[in-house]
Amino acid sequence: MFFHIVLERNMQLHPRHFGRNLRENLVSKLMKDVEGTCSGRHGFVVAITGIENIGKGLIRDGTGFVTFPVKYQCVVFRPFKGEILEAVVTMVNKMGFFAEAGPVQIFVSNHLIPDDMEFQSGDMPNYTTSDGSVKIQKDSEVRLKIIGTRVDATEIFCIGTIKDDFLGVINDPATA
Amino acid sequence: MSVEPFNKLVKLAARAFYDDITTKGDNQPKTGRSDNRGIAVVVLDALTRRQWVREEDLAKDLKLHSKQLRRTLRFFEEEKLITRDHRRETAKGAKIFSAAVAATADGQHPTKEGEEKIKLHTHSYCCLDYAQIYDVVRYRMHRMKKKLKDELDEKNTVQEYICPNCAKRYTALDALRLISMDDEYFHCESCNGELVAESDKLAAQEGGDGDDNARKRRREKLRDMLDKLEVQLKPLVEQLTRVKDLPVPEFGTLQAWEARASAAARSNGDSSGNDPSRSSQGLGGTPMPFLGDTKVEVAFSGVEGKGEGIKSEAESTSLKVLPPWMIKQGMNLTKEQRGEIKQEAKMDGSSVAVEFSDDKKSTESDDKKNLQDEYVKAYYAALLKKQQELEEAAKKQQELSNTSLFDGLSGTSSGRQVGMKSKRDEDEGDDVEWEEAPVAGNSNENYKVDLNVEADATAEAEAEVEDDDDVDWEEG
Ligand SMILES: [Zn+2]
């Protein structure tokens, strides 16, 4: 799920950035530092959409670095248990398959793949129905439901299922 | 409203789900004597034969210790099968309850106030909540089936993996760390052994090998359980469908139920006005909103209701709002007919009437009140009669008014009549609105009737005044 929230961060700026472009430098550094990171609490920071407020800088003794408290608005992506996502398959093996939905990695174990799909090994390992009409392989697009998340301080990992109504392959690269 | 099918539902549910419930704590030893399994069924059965019941009485009837009963009832309250009510009341309040229960004809009214010491005890009452029971049972069935089905489909279960070498366990959430680039298996982090999926949660734990077998056995077991569930709960399911479209028996809150029961008792027996001991004291001081259904109001609203019916009829005939395209110059219409006056005045009248009856209730009931009641009845009877006459005439006039001869007075005066009524109800001659009626009414008198004060006035005198009014109106 996506959220638009306000976060705060203390930015350390090197003295060489001081000058009339200080603010721009600060913002571009913030984007570089923050976008694409993940916190277990808020999820993945997708994009910074605005700066709310930049506080007074504090000069560090000895280094000359200045710390600015910056409040910024950003879009975050946080997966939840029970959420339905569309994801791209990245790897298929005997134990199941891995898929990605943006920054999130999801593992679907083989017992959460419909029973009529069998694992086929080879160059292009895949799960296929007996009549061959549906095939899950690398780069397939699947709709899945998240049934569990592991949230660490800097990482979120999910496990999902496609064993439910309306879940499974939504776009097969072989036929597309 | 038949309770029987619902009672059967309760009994079936009791036997299906609460048969082996014991209300003893788990830490207590379950000796033969303290084992009270089955008590839940007994209590529920007893409740199907009652409505609201005081818990002490129930305990006495069932020959149970009240503590034990209370524990069971608390359990049922948590299970949402019953509603309970606790209140502090005097012995007298308890008696009122008893009276309500007995629903006796009359007599047996609580003793006069001040006779007993005011001593408050907390009494608890309980009652089956059939509507909720229906929902609870259905939900329970749904959950049971869903759990087994999900388990059967292995939905939403996090796959576990086990290392056959060092018996270290992993879950699917660790998958990212376990994949190896060399082959398509997961590998143990500590010994690099090949992990195998572990697939039994409900069935007996098996070793790493033969997991297909274990899975099959487990599925069989689950399917077996599901079948058994279907068969054994079939009577309950059938009863649920039978009950589905029936109106659910509702006893309301304790107060509502009590008020209804005692009202029924009174209408069976004595019909002599209001009972002072009842309306003035409440239930040992507890607020009893439903005692509002006293005799006074019933008699009152009978007259009032009839009057209102006629009133609205008159309004619909004589005070239709004409659409703008029908209004031409030269037509002499009331504001109401032009649709300029809102319903306020009429609304006012009715709402005030309610207020008035409330006032009535709150006043200390005594002889004076009875006198007033008599007066009010007579007064309204006279008024009603008068109004009927007026409206008859108004209707006639209205028919005439289709011709251009109509000068609008009839419509106004009947409209005014309605307004006057509301004014009377109001008790305070705040008549500004109606004095400002657009067409100056031919009757300039303004009748103020204060019902609380004019207890001595006679209905006849009032009727005479009405006659005057009538005459005036006919002149117009
Ligand atoms: Zn190992």
UniProtKB/TrEMBL annotation, chain A:
One of its GO terms (cellular component) is P-body. CDD domains: RNAP_II_Rpb7_N (cd04329), S1_RNAPII_Rpb7 (cd04462). This is DNA-directed RNA polymerase subunit. Residues 8-64 form the RNA polymerase Rpb7-like N-terminal domain. Residues 79-156 form the S1 motif domain. Its main location: nucleus. It comes from Rhamnella rubrinervis. DNA-dependent RNA polymerase which catalyzes the transcription of DNA into RNA using the four ribonucleoside triphosphates as substrates. GO terms for molecular function: single-stranded DNA binding; single-stranded RNA binding; translation initiation factor binding. Keywords: DNA-directed RNA polymerase, Nucleus, Transcription. It is found in: Nucleus. It holds the Pfam family S1. Belongs to the eukaryotic RPB7/RPC8 RNA polymerase subunit family. It comes from the Eukaryota. One of its GO terms (biological process) is transcription initiation at RNA polymerase II promoter. The keyword Cell membrane does not apply.
From TrEMBL, chain B:
Transmembrane segments: none annotated. Residues 6-138 form the HTH TFE/IIEalpha-type domain. Residues 262-291, 336-371, 390-476 are annotated as: Disordered. Keywords: Transcription, Transcription regulation. Signal peptide: none annotated. One of its GO terms (cellular component) is transcription factor TFIIE complex. Residues 268-281, 401-416 have a biased composition (Polar residues). InterPro entries: TFE, TFIIE/TFIIEa_HTH, TFIIE_asu, TFIIEa/SarR/Rpc3_HTH_dom, WH_DNA-bd_sf, Znf_RING/FYVE/PHD. The keyword Transcription regulation applies. It comes from the Eukaryota. One of its GO terms (biological process) is transcription initiation at RNA polymerase II promoter. Residues 336-347, 357-371 have a biased composition (Basic and acidic residues). Residues 427-436, 457-476 have a biased composition (Acidic residues). It holds the Pfam family TFIIE_alpha. Belongs to the TFIIE alpha subunit family. This is HTH TFE/IIEalpha-type domain-containing protein. It comes from Rhamnella rubrinervis.
